[in-house]
């Protein structure tokens, strides 16, 4: 079955509701009958068809089961979740999933691919408490991250080089317990032969070449794309001249940062202070 796109300008939630209504009517079911088959009230079915209430993953799975659609509604739910991501991030994630080599520099927080899910949930929980996103969107982001992290299990896995600003280690996220587990996870990842972790110490000062986080991806055809983001949007960079400058600056950053042994020693020291 193909996804029924409807109006391409409508939101993912509206498209989900439209598809649910179309499938229900094709079987000549009332909202009450569909609700009974799915294990939900007819009122919730009505709200979701009109995009008045958020769709949960559990609801999407139930719709796929009832309509025997093989994951169509789950895919529509994923699009709703992606709508809460920064502009440009979904495109970056598609490129990230295909990359053969990933180089990243991060400020303030541990890079997403290296986050434990508890650490990620704590970050998103802060956004929920500030009213920036809903709990549903927060759960969607964490689930999306879990899906991204599956790239680490590929055979062969991508080569990953991560430079973490010292602030990534010193900013306690989710409390000491979650942060200790996160630092332990970094140390475990660093044992993998395809993963290198370095720390850019504060003492670099103005010698640190990047003021914002960025990622460089080497794709299967050996082309390179870059990704950087501001507070409100992300940007996938493909310009050769810009990327050449980013790569040169990244090489400079690697040289100026702590070597691997010193970086891991710093992670252990910070972890010890959290006990």
> Could you tell me the mean pLDDT?
90
The tally of helices reads 12
Query: How is the biggest beta sheet arranged?
Result: 6 strands, mixed
The count of β-strands is: 6
The class by helix and strand makeup works out as: alpha/beta
Query: Are there runs of 5+ residues with pLDDT below 50, and where?
Result: 1-9
- C-alpha end-to-end distance: 54 Å
Which range does the strand content fall in?
5-15%
* Residues in helices, as a percent range: 40-55%
> Whole-number radius of gyration?
22 Å
Oligomer: single chain
Shape verdict: elongated
- Strands of the largest sheet, in order across it? 3-2-1-4-5-6
Along the chain, the helix and strand elements come as: HHHHHHEHHEHHEEEEHH
Kindly describe this structure.
With 275 residues, the chain is α/β, with parallel strands linked by helices. It contains twelve helices and six strands. It has helices at 12-26, 31-38, 42-49, 57-67, 72-82, 89-98, 117-130, 135-148, 166-170, 176-189, 240-256, 260-273, and strands at residues 101-106, 159-165, 195-200, 214-218, 224-229, 234-237. It has a six-stranded mixed β-sheet with strand order 3-2-1-4-5-6, sandwiched between helices. Helix 1 runs antiparallel to helix 5 and helix 4 runs antiparallel to helix 5 (72-82). The longest helix has 17 residues, at 240-256.
Quick structural summary:
The protein is α/β, with parallel strands linked by helices. It is built from 12 helices and 6 strands. A 6-stranded mixed beta sheet has the order 3-2-1-4-5-6, with helices on both faces.
């Amino acid at each position: 079955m193909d996804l029924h796109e409807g109006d391409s300008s409508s939101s993912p939630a509206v498209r989900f509701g439209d598809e649910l209504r179309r499938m229900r009517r094709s079987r000549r079911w009332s909202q009450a009958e569909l609700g009974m088959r799915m294990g939900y009230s007819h009122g919730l079915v009505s709200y979701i068809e009109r995009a008045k209430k958020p769709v949960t993953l559990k609801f999407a799975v139930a719709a796929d089961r009832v309509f025997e659609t093989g994951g169509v509604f789950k895919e529509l739910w994923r699009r709703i979740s992606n709508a809460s991501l920064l502009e440009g991030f979904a495109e970056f994630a598609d490129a990230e999933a295909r990359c053969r080599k990933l180089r990243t520099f991060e400020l303030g927080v541990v890079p997403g691919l290296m986050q434990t899910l508890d650490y990620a949930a704590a970050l998103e929980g802060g956004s929920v408490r500030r009213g920036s996103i809903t709990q549903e969107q927060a759960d969607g982001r964490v689930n999306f991250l879990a899906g991204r992290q599956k790239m680490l299990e590929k055979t062969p896995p991508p080569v990953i080089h991560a430079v973490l600003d010292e602030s990534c280690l010193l900013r306690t996220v989710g409390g000491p317990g979650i942060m200790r587990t996160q630092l332990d996870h970094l140390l475990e990842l660093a044992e993998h032969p395809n993963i290198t972790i370095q720390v850019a110490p504060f003492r670099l000062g103005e010698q640190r070449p990047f003021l914002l986080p960025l990622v460089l991806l080497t794709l299967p055809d050996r082309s390179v794309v870059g990704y950087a983001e501001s507070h409100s949007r992300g940007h996938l960079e493909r310009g050769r001249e810009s990327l050449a400058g980013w790569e040169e600056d990244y090489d400079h950053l690697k040289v100026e940062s702590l070597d691997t042994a010193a970086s891991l020693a710093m992670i252990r020291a910070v972890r010890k202070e959290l006990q």
